[in-house]
Each structure stands twice: as C-alpha cells, then as structure tokens.
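G., the chain you wanted modeled:
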Amino acid sequence: MTEHIIELLAGVAVLGGACQWLAWQMRLPAILFLLLAGIFVGPVAGWLDPDALLGDLLFPFVSLAVSVILFEGSLTLKFAEIRGLEKVVRRFVTTGMLTTWFITTLATRWLADFSWGMSMLFGAMMVVTGPTVIVPMLRTVRPTAKVASILRWEGIIIDPIGALLAVLVYEFLISSGQGAAWVDTLQTFLKLILSGALVGIAIGYLLGEALRRDWLPHYLFNVATMAAVMGAFALSNALAMESGLLAVTVMGIYLANRKGVPVDEILAFKESLSLLLITALFILLAARLDLGLLRELGWVSVQIFLVLQFVARPLKVLLTTRGSSLTWRERALLGWIAPRGIVAAAVMALFSLQLTQKGFADAEMLVPLTFVIIIGTVVLQSLTAGPLARLLKVAEPGSGGFLIVGANPLARAIAKALVQQDVSVRLTDTLWDNVSRARMAGLKTYYGNPLSEHAEVYLDTAGLGRVLALTADEHLNELACTRFKAYFGPKRAFALRVSPLEKGRKTVSSGRGQWAFGDTANFVDLSRRVARGAEIRQTNISEAFTFEQFVDKYGERATPLFAVDQKSRVEVFTTDNTFVPKAGWVVLALVDPEREDARRAPAKAVSR
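Predicted structure as tokens:
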C-alpha cells in the first residue's frame, strides 16, 4: 500500500514536470496541459483517485497551497506601478466584480436551470481571474504597461475577494434553513474582513521588522517567511472560516510596499515550491472531475462560457474604465483577457463537496461547470490574446531592448552605455551585490535566476527583444540563450565567450546563439580590461571619419561592441556579422586607456 502511494505521488510530480516542459515549448499556460493530464489519469484512465490517495488531507493541502501562491503573487504588488490607475483597479475589484457576479448568476439560473443559491455561488467564484494564468499570458502577449499592471493587480487581489464572496454565499445557504440568514451572513462578512486584515497586517509587520532589523540570520529568511505565511493563514481561518486567503494577500501587499524589507530575497525562496504546488494542485483537482456530470451539462456549459466571455467581461471593463486615461484599444484588450485559475477550481471543489453532503441539489454540477470555464477561457484567450494585442497596437515593441544575463561590472558598463543611447535594458543576476550596485546606478534589474519558474512569471521583458548573456558561467549563458531565443527568435540571442578561443579550434555558433563582440572577445579579457580602467566610449561615424578609420586609429586598444543608428536601432558586432556602420551611426566600443609610455613618447622625442 505504501509503495503504491509513493508511486502515485512520484507519478504526479513526473507528469507535472512533463506538462510544464510542454507548456514552455508551446508557449501556452501550463494550466491547460495540467488540467488535461489530470483528466486523463483520473476519470479517463482511472489511475489516480485524489480522495483515496490523500483522504482528509486533500483539501487542507489545497488550501495551504493556494495561500502560498497568493502570498507570492501579492509580494509583487507595488502601489507605484498603478499610480494614476488606482481608481480603475479599485473599480475592477468592487463594482466590476459585482457586475460579473450579477450577470453570471442570471446566466447560470436561466441557462442551466440551477437554483438561485447554486447560481449565486457559481457566480461568486467566477469573478476571479487568477495570477497563475494571467501572468504567464502577459509574458506572451506583452501588452502596454497600463494593461499589464491592471490585469496583474486584478488577478491577485480579486482571488481572495472572490473566495470571501463565495464564503458569504455559502454561509447564507447554510443559515437560510435555520432562520436569520441575513444577520448571520452580515456577521460572517465582518468577521472575515476584520480577521483577514488584522492578522495579515500584524504578522506582516512582525515579519518585516525581523527581516529589516536582522533579527534572523540570512539563511533563515526563507523558513521564517514560510512559517509566517502558514501561521497567518491558519490563525485567520481559526478566527473566521476561509479568511486566511485575505490574510496572506494583505500580508504580501503590506510587505511589498514597506521600505527596507528585502522582498526580492523573500520572493526567491518560493520559486520551485510554487511551481510544485501549482503543478500538483491542477492535476489533483482535475483528476476528481466526474465526466458523467460534464456530459449531463452538455452545451449549457458552453453557453455560460460564451456569456462570461462576450457579455460579462466586456460590460465590466466598459463600466469600470469610464473616465480613465485608457484608450479604447487598451479597454478592448482588457475586455478580452480574464482566464480563470487555481482559486476558482480549489474553492469550488471544496464548497461543492460540502454542499453535496448537506443535500443541496445541483451542488455536484458546480465543479464540472467550473472546469469548462477554466479550460475555455485559457484555451481561447491564450491563442488569441497575442494576435489581438498586435492588431489593436497595444503590444509593447519588443525588438529594441536587451535582457542582459549578469549584472557584474562588465555587464553594468555595457548596460549604462546602451541606456545612454535610449535602448531599453534589464539586467538579471543571482548575486544580490551585483543587483544592488546596478540599481544604485539607475539600471532596471531582476534579482533571481532568469531560467526559474519565478522569472517565467515575474521577469518583466516589456520593450526587450534580445538576450545578451554576460556571465562567467558558460553553462548558464548557453541555457539562457536557449531559453530566450524561444521568445525573441534564434537570431536575437547573444553570448560572450567566457575564455579565449583555443588556437586551432574552429569557431562555431552552436545552439546557444551568436558569439558576441567577435572571435577574440571573451568575458575574462573584457572584465580585466574594465577593472584596469577601460571605458565604453561612443564614436560618431561620418563621411569624414569612417569605421575603417576608427579601427585604424584604435587598433587592438578598442573592441567594437554595438553600432546604434539615429533611431536607436542596435546592431551587435558578432563573429558572423559582416555589418559595417555607415555615416550617422554611433559605435560603442570598449577602449583601453592610453598607456603611460605611449603618452610620454612625444615628450621624449621633443627633449631629444
């Protein structure tokens, strides 16, 4: 028996890893493949029964996993990102949420012929969108900063709000048979809000103080944060049922906007954990799906999906964005993107089970209907949001900027030179010292591994269209180029050779991309030259001073790096690049300081 359980748990992990890899290859949200895999191994093949596998631990595990995912998402919500759009975001999660709830409730009642109670509960859960689906989709669609910020804030904030709304409906349904339903519901609402907000702020404050004042050694940051998240979730739920999601969300937002808290270091600890939790949750929940109930719903579920996609969402955006600075094109894209995610599946599965046990009709139909909405919104919007954004001309231009892997002194010098030419740049590094120095220099950064799942979600590539790997780790350079050429294209990945090319060894581009800065350039040599005082200088190429004359003047003292035209279009000097800058271009080259003996030579000649 024990061996069988181990085999099933290992199988879920292996299957989830394969789904994540396939999603990366096809550039689609992983939730789609995870759901299909879960349905196959569960109701189709009958290999996995989550209720038999985990028993009473299934839904506590689901709840804790969702709390960790929401906390991580809320840590990225900084108020500065939505400056000027606060009203829109506030409307999205208040009046907009109520609009979606009302329309979905009516559609479910009239089309599926559910009871008003079940229709209200389903409508409450369909107001959520979900950061686990929204953020990867934004990475592929790459809309304007306004649209991306609104969708990300909505996706993270509305999840706990939707869960709280579902709790209120659930309490109303349970209390309606005992009388005084409205009074009980109001009391429940006040307890939820007070418990979630107070616990989230209190534990967030204590954790923030511990991190800011060095009450904890650095190696315990991850453990302490994880313990605080689970403690806040459990304490808040003990005070008021299902208020834990609100508590961890408030806690994350509080920490993200408090000065002096090393949020970036906190975020790093949950990269692999969050990936594993999301993977397991979707497979386990999909494996519980009853295909018989899904067939019983039939085309009604598709009709409800169409109402959500083409009526509820556009009307919500129309009402909430009036009077804002958003253009009609940005509003149109906002009105199209609203995929449902893990919170909708998890909370609906929990309430459906409890209501079915209490004898409520139609409660068992809520889960298959929820999965239809999740799969429908993810599939349709993943395939169409990118082309729609480009058609509406609200997609960020991605051809000009550089994602630089590495924030070492050489990478920072190159980034500064590019920024001075109005070229977008973002540096990424796993060493905090490098990242902090880059930030002090005014450069945009990402702290973490660019190959991680966390980077897949939170690494902002808006305005970037090329990757330049500049680290001393040749393996990392190759993996980074392999990873990002899937997004930017095979001719837009560049890597600097780590060490000099051995004599007699043939230069090859390999699968990593193009060798940056020519045959003789390498990371060791360029870094040493920067340490000895070499600078990246810009030289204007003209009819009077050609690129050939530039090469003759500086010789081996200069290594050409980039050529930039008047429109900030950049060409990278590479091993295979035969490009020659013409008049009007600017050449960026690493130039060694003139040697002392060379400067003294004319003086000696005069004295003689």
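Confidence is low (pLDDT under 50) at residues 504-511, 596-608.

Shout if anything looks off.
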